[in-house]
Design brief:
This protein is of the alpha+beta class. It contains four helices and five strands, in the order ββααβαββα. A three-stranded antiparallel beta sheet has the order 2-1-3. The chain has a two-stranded antiparallel sheet with strand order 4-5.
Amino acid sequence: MLVIYEIKTGNIVGINTNQNDTFESMYPDVSEEFKLKYNGLIFEDDTNIINNYTNYKILNNEIILKEVSEEINIVPTPTEQRLIDIELAIASILGGA
């Protein structure tokens, strides 16, 4: 699975289970600004993480369970999620994915 996350926070913003996709293949021609904000890592498929990715984050290139103090199960507001979705969609379109 390809885990897409915010570099600054480590928060996972999306998961792609297509075995052939990488961050670079999904977003080959995105701006440097996008690459400074998001990244992607490949991991073995994990149904629990796929279904509950807001409970996890990336730290030192590993998926870890968020601490309770980090507000597990707090999902982005609808506006925040729309912005994330739009950024990823635009990058995908411009990147040729």
